[in-house]
Amino acid sequence: MLLTAIKIKLAALVAVAGLNTDTLKNPEVVKTLESLAADQATAQKEPGKVDINASLTKAVEKIAELAKAGDADANYALGKWATLGVFQNATPEAVLGFYKASADKGNILAKVELGALMLQAFPQDGEKLKEAVKLIEEAEAAGNNDARRALAQLTLQGAAGLEQSLEKAKALLEKGSADGDGASTLGLAQLYAAGVKNAKGEDVLVKNEDESLKLLQKSVEQGNSPAMSALAARYFNGDEKVTKNPAKAIEMFKAASEKGNAAANNSLGLIYENGLGETKKDLKEAVKYYTLAANAGDGAAQFRLGQFLEVGLKEGEEVVVAQNQKSALDLYRIAAQGGLAEANFNVGAFYEAGNTVDKDLAKAFGFYQRAAFAGLPQAQHKVGQYYQNGAGIGRDLVAGAAWYDKAAQNGFALSQLMMGAMHEQGAGVAQSATAAASYYSLAADQGMPLAMIRLASLNERGVVSGKPDLVKAWVYAQQAVDASKEAKDAVAYRDALEKAMSPEQKAEAKKVLEQKKADASKNAPASAPAVPAAAPASGAASKAKGPAKK
Length: 550
Description:
Layout: H1 2-17, H2 27-45, H3 52-68, H4 72-84, H5 92-103, H6 108-121, H7 126-141, H8 145-157, H9 166-178, H10 182-194, E1 196-197, E2 203-205, H11 209-221, H12 225-237, H13 246-258, H14 262-274, H15 283-295, H16 299-311, E3 313-315, E4 318-321, H17 325-337, H18 341-353, H19 361-373, H20 377-389, H21 397-409, H22 413-425, H23 433-445, H24 449-461, H25 470-483, H26 488-499, H27 503-523
Helix pairs in contact: 1-2, 1-15, 2-3, 3-4, 4-5, 5-6, 6-7, 7-8, 8-9, 9-10, 10-11, 11-12, 12-13, 13-14, 14-15, 15-16, 16-17, 17-18, 18-19, 19-20, 20-21, 21-22, 22-23, 23-24, 24-25, 25-26, 25-27
């Protein structure tokens, strides 16, 4: 799987050389970038033939030389490279400086980038915000669609001192759409899909799914890859407006894939991994598409490849991905840096076990905590455990119970069981048999045998109702026997209960159990088919909640 790791590194370099030379005027800058791009293409096709690091260093040195002489295009390239992380030690001030030097000489792309960075860097500085908006407005007036979408989003939200106006924002997106910008068209589609309300909750743009679909299709025709991925997902699943057509969906996903769309590649990986729709399961194809998505920064794909590397992946007897836990950890780290909760959890597990790294419970706790704050139930449970046991952090039963409760409320059965035990014992929470029974019931409903045994015990002792209830106790014990596939302890406990029951109680208990089984079968939800992820929102309106000011 070394090849995958190499491709991921090279993909970052492809993005570096991928500066749009059509917008650059200096022949020396264009020649330098095209030469680097050629070397990178060679390195992809024939690994080892070209020293890509040397090529990159040479290109950076040449661009830096031109930038120092005041060239606008070179300063823009340095700013873009710094943003992409080529200069790992570049300060925010240096990045702003590169873009400003370029923008001051009229580079439109630099104006867009500088304006966007200033909006992020100086959210409370009125003068800086005005300057940022002015840069974006100038770029929009020059016909730049990135600036047009950014200005539409600011206007829609009433941000950076601009007057909030759906009409103006919509007009900007319509202007971009008419100019052939598929991202603007997608932004309009998203507006109509959600509708827009004002601060009073009144419709200022009525939700219109037909218009949204029409615009989504237009965006696809304009070559917008996020729109392709979004529409493909709808064709794959089918909905009220789109007839299910997996073959057409896969064709569209692949068209988006050719444009480098990460969401489409991740969806194709999922389709081939599981053999979804009308597609034959093919793990090699799945790994190929997951790798493409990972190269483009898709955290879910990076995580899935990490899982493959952690345990290895076979198709029949053929090894598709060789086990490499070090590489797995590297991918988990990358995905974790992107904020993926599951990846933070897995990095924590590596530190907890001392797997390929030195065992470090404090570091493990830190990663688990990041995942827990992101809402991952199993991470919330882990944080609860660490507080309960004083591992990697000071012992704190109250904090432990609070985290167990978060996970329990999110449906994590182990935490529901633990909260039941803590309430039963009065550890970290108030002692309460009623609360204990409530949590145990939640875990039992998810098929946890131990929770069923605890409920049986509570009823046998009459802790909840104030008097023993052997009928309920036996029912829970029998459920534990069934759920545990007749574990010895569960069978022994059920048999002990039976010895203390009258024939009438046994008959009633069996009747209650049969009714429970019938109710469970009747209320069982239909299993939902696995579906590929839809494309993430994009464009000026992707984060807009409507014109209500916050």
